[in-house]
Amino acid sequence: MVQNALGLIEIVGLAAALEAADAALKAANVQLIGYEMTKGGGMVVIKLTGNVGAVSAAVQAGKAAGSKVNKVFATHIIPRPHETLSGIVTTKDTVGFKEKKNSVVEKEKSEEIQKDKEIVAVDELQLEVQEEIEAAEKKR
Known about the structure:
Layout: E1 5-12, H1 14-27, E2 31-37, E3 43-50, H2 52-67, E4 72-79, H3 86-89, H4 100-139
Antiparallel strand pairs: 1-3, 1-4, 2-3
Helix pairs in contact: 1-2
């Protein structure tokens, strides 16, 4: 999930957050993890990932663009965040984040369905062969 760095932009208001996220994504080669809204106060946190230099440039660009719309409360960059932080960074409240677990589960289900189809096809083929053998024995 998080690559080399994690960038955070905390800003007041969704419109300002969208402006900041847009500028950040256009400024550097980073990926948007998502955004998370607080339970009050109108604060929004934008979460970005990429290499350290790109995240740094993106956060600065997002801060500059977002501050033209509303107050930027805080920005922060964490180079090489520890893997256990991913549970905090990507919560159920993170909008835009798709858990990879779901895609893995869906892939496994798809593979299981494919195997079931193959088993049915083999069973049908065996039944046809058995019927042909029985028909050939009756002709004798």
